Amino acid sequence: MTDAQPASRARRALLHSPAAFLMVLAFVNWLGFASWSALLNNFAKEAAGFTGQDIGILQSVREIPGFLAFTAIILFWFMREQILAYLSLLTLGFGVAITGFYPSLGGLLITTTIMSLGFHYYETAQQSLQLQLLPKAEAPRLLGKIAGASAAAQLLAFGSIALIWRLFQPGYTIVFVVAGLLTIGLTVAAWLLFPRFQGAVPQNKGFVLRKRYWLYYALTFMSGARRQIFMAFGGFLLVERFGYDVAATATLLLATYGINTFVGPMLGHLVGRVGERATIQLENISLIAVFVGYALASHGHFAGWGVYVAGALFVVDGVFFTLVLAQRTYFQKIADPADIAPTSAVAFTINHIAAVFLPVTFGLLWIRDPAIVFYIGAAVATVSLTLAFLVPRHPVPGRETMLASAVPAAAE
What span, in angstroms and rounded, lies between the C-alpha atoms of 48 and 111? Predict the structure, then answer.
């Protein structure tokens, strides 16, 4: 009985921990999305006969729900962020489950839209929950742990798919169905087990777009643009130019998120130690190198090593993407606490403005020369690096940028 009581108390403490709750939901979200991502490029190429232009159209459509994320503010009038997160994960799971039944451009546009609605509305809700529930002093470290949980989910998804595909060569349909149903089942379990979580400050219900947040908006826009180039075309380069199959792609992703499972919490500590300014600069420097490397690899500048260089760049980009958490903690430090939910929704839309038109436009450039796409990505990362120099070393309200005139004593 004595042993049972501490174990029971530990379980209760875990279920009432906001950080544990956010880690579990992040795990479920990325388990579903990573399963879809691991199969998409090969499914699109082999089953649906996609070209670079087709994948660009699909990725543009996938980002439309992200562009419409500001409408989550309306949903927040009727439901809490936690309920929206649960409903979004159920939608994500359903979209993944039905993907394999529709191997055509039209079918993939429909199933991808359903999946994407769930994924993007969940991301909007969870970003708001993270910044409301996590204390500022601990946020970088805890966000690093949440990133580690997300990476563990992706590690499980990619590892399972790589192993199953090598051993059994199942059809795409069965893998999509299993991944979708698993996402739905885990969401229902989380809904039943975790209590209600609520931030300490009531959130503003209207649309919030404040002038003093302009640098955060700009960084968010540039981050969305450069990330979309990688999401839409980084993996497709590996498949189209270097012949990566499902098992090879999944293995590469397995390596990426195997590293992130352990490195994610370390990068969270790094943000807390060196600050948001230096972290955002480091992220963009790494991305410039990655995009230039992709461009050179697409032209065959690495001779017989191109296939390995492109794969290594894919892993490096996936690892350093974790550093984007510095943008969130930067906003948390400068924000009015009541602005977090509406600004999270607006910022998510800003993040996806470029994502709506960029893939289809760049799909046309891809047909001409894939290197052009990646050189533009390097230029975007360079602009983002320039903006990073405007982030104060100690951001606070009134000291949102290096150009701000009002400097509280605490920020000196």
Answer: 13
